[in-house]
TrEMBL record:
Lineage: Bacteria, Bacillati, Bacillota, Bacilli, Bacillales
Gene3D superfamilies: Aspartate Aminotransferase, domain 1, Type I PLP-dependent aspartate aminotransferase-like (Major domain)
GO process terms (BP): cysteine metabolic process
Similarity comment: Belongs to the class-V pyridoxal-phosphate-dependent aminotransferase family. Csd subfamily.
Transferase keyword on record: yes
Catalytic function, reaction form: (sulfur carrier)-H + L-cysteine = (sulfur carrier)-SH + L-alanine
Cofactor: pyridoxal 5'-phosphate
Organism: Lacicoccus qingdaonensis
Protein name, per record: Cysteine desulfurase
InterPro entries: Aminotrans_V_dom (IPR000192), Aminotrans_V_PyrdxlP_BS (IPR020578), Cys_dSase_SufS (IPR010970), Cysteine_dSase (IPR016454), PyrdxlP-dep_Trfase (IPR015424), PyrdxlP-dep_Trfase_major (IPR015421), PyrdxlP-dep_Trfase_small (IPR015422)
Pfam families noted in UniProt: Aminotran_5
PANTHER family hit by this protein: CYSTEINE DESULFURASE, CYSTEINE DESULFURASE 1, CHLOROPLASTIC
Length: 407
C-alpha cells in the first residue's frame, strides 16, 4: 500500500484545524471520500443527472446504467448470489428497519423470541424492541464476556424453539469485537431461526462473503466505506425477500396500479419506492472500486498494524482504560482517561487538530454494561499513519497532564 499516494486522493485530510494538521480518527462515525468518489458523483450531476428506470432518453438511460451497475458492483463486492438480493436503502439503520418491519411483522408472533446482544448499536436494537412491542414478543440477550466478546456456547444457550430472529453486529462500533458470524448463523439456522447482521463496521474494513457466512440479511452504509452519506445496502436472500411485502409505496415499485388496488414489481425495486439515491449509488460504486484497487485484505492488514501500534502505545498511558478485546479487534479503540471527561478530552484533542468521537456512540445499553456514561473513541482507516498516531498519543498525554495537574 502506497500511503502517500492514498493520502493524495483525500484532499480533505490536507488541511489545518486550529492551526494543526488535521488528524482524522473518526472513521467509525463517517469515513472520508477519495476524489474518485466525489468526481464520479460530480460527473453524474454535470453530465447525466436524470431519473432512473423511467425515461428512454440518453441521459436517463445512462443514469439507469450507472445506478444498476452500482448494484452489480455491490453484489460482487459481498459475493451475493444475485443482483436482486441487493436493495439500496438510506443506510444501515433504514435497512434494519426494513427487515424488522417487513419480515418481522409477518414472521414474529406473540411469545416468539428475538435474540440480540448488549453490544448492538441503537440501529440494531431499537427496531427489534419496537417489533417485540408490536407483537408481544420477547427480546433475549446473548451475554457478553467481560472483554466484550461473545462465546458461541452462550449463543447456543439462549436459543429456544421460540427463537425466530438472531440480530447481531459483525463488528462492534465501540469494542471493536469481531463476531464469528459464520458460526452464529449456523447456530441460528440449526434452531430454524433467521439471522440478520449489522455490517456497518465490517464491510468497510474486511472482505465479507454473504454466501460463505450464510446470513439471511446483512446491512451496511456507504458513508463508512469511503462512499457518500445517504446510501446503504440491505442484502437479503432472494427466496426470503421475494416473500416480503414492501414497507414504502409509490413510484417505481409498482407493477400495476388501479384506483383501489395495486401490485408490486419484482425484486429489488419492489423495496425502492420513489426516486432512489442515484448519485449516491454511483459514488458508492466508485468507493468499491477504490477499495478493490487497494485490496480489502491489504486494507485490513494495514489497519491491524495501525490499531496494534496505537493500542500498545495507549496502554502505556497511566490511568487509561481501554474497552474491548486485547486481541483480534477491528481498527478502533474506545477508552477513558482517568480524571478527564470524554467530551473535554475530545475538545482538547480537537484543539490539537485531532478528531475523535466522544459520547455513548449510539450504544447506551453497552455503556451500561461497561459501567460508564460515555467514552472517547479513536478509529483508523487506510488513510491514517503511524505518525498521526504518535501525534495523537502526545496530545492525549498533554491533555491528561493538563486536566489532572495539581495547581
Ligand atoms: N451499526 C453500527 C455498528 C454502526 O456503527 C452504525 C453507525 N454508527 C450504524 C449501525 C448506523 O449506521 P447509519 O447511521 O449509517 O444508518
Amino acid at each position: 500500500m502506497d500511503i502517500n499516494a492514498i493520502r493524495k486522493d483525500f484532499p480533505i485530510l490536507n488541511q489545518k484545524v486550529h492551526g494543526n494538521p488535521l488528524i482524522y480518527l473518526d472513521t467509525s462515525a463517517t469515513s472520508q471520500s477519495p476524489v474518485q468518489v466525489t468526481d464520479a458523483m460530480s460527473e453524474y450531476y454535470n453530465e447525466y443527472n436524470s431519473n432512473v428506470h423511467r425515461g428512454v432518453h440518453t441521459l436517463g438511460t445512462k443514469a439507469t446504467d450507472g445506478y444498476e451497475q452500482a448494484r452489480m458492483k455491490v453484489r460482487s463486492f459481498i459475493n451475493a448470489k444475485r443482483y436482486e438480493e441487493i436493495i439500496f436503502t438510506r443506510g444501515t439503520t433504514a435497512a434494519i428497519n426494513l427487515v424488522a418491519r417487513s419480515f418481522g411483522d409477518v414472521n414474529i408472533s406473540e411469545g416468539d423470541e428475538i435474540v440480540v446482544t448488549e453490544m448492538e448499536h441503537h440501529a440494531n436494537i431499537v427496531p427489534w424492541q419496537e417489533l417485540a412491542k408490536r407483537k408481544n414478543a420477547k427480546l433475549v440477550f446473548i451475554p457478553l464476556e467481560e472483554d466484550g466478546t461473545i462465546k458461541l456456547e452462550n449463543v447456543e444457550a439462549v436459543m429456544t424453539d421460540k427463537t425466530k430472529i438472531v440480530a447481531v453486529t459483525h463488528v462492534s462500533n465501540v469494542l471493536g469485537t469481531i463476531n464469528d458470524i459464520k458460526s452464529i448463523a449456523e447456530i441460528a439456522h440449526k434452531h430454524d431461526a433467521y439471522i440478520t447482521v449489522d455490517g456497518a463496521q465490517s464491510v468497510p474494513h474486511m472482505s465479507v462473503d454473504v454466501q460463505d457466512l450464510d446470513v439471511d440479511f446483512y446491512a451496511f452504509s456507504g458513508h463508512k466505506m469511503l462512499g457518500p452519506t445517504g446510501i446503504g445496502v440491505l442484502y437479503g436472500k432472494a427466496e426470503i425477500l421475494d416473500k416480503m411485502e414492501p414497507i414504502e409505496y409509490g413510484g417505481d415499485m409498482i407493477d400495476f396500479v388501479d384506483l383501489r388496488e395495486s401490485t408490486w414489481t419484482d425484486l429489488p425495486v419492489k423495496f425502492e419506492a420513489g426516486t432512489p439515491m442515484i448519485a449516491e449509488a454511483i459514488g458508492l460504486s466508485a468507493a468499491i472500486d477504490y477499495i478493490n484497487e487497494v485490496g480489502a485484505d491489504e486494507i485490513l492488514s494495514y489497519e491491524q498494524e495501525l490499531v496494534k501500534y496505537a493500542y500498545d502505545k495507549m496502554s502505556e498511558i497511566e490511568g487509561i482504560e481501554i474497552y474491548g478485546p486485547t486481541e483480534e479487534r477491528a481498527g478502533l479503540i474506545t477508552f477513558n482517561l482517568d480524571g478527564v471527561h470524554p467530551h473535554d478530552l475530545a475538545t482538547a484533542l480537537d484543539s490539537d487538530g485531532v478528531a475523535v468521537r466522544a459520547g455513548h456512540h449510539c450504544a447506551q445499553p453497552l455503556m451500561k454494561f461497561l459501567g460508564v456514561s460515555s467514552t472517547a473513541r479513536a478509529s483508523f482507516y487506510l488513510y491514517n499513519t503511524k505518525d498521526e498516531i504518535d501525534f495523537f498519543i502526545d496530545s492525549l498525554k498533554r491533555t491528561k497532564e493538563f486536566f489532572t495537574h495539581e495547581f
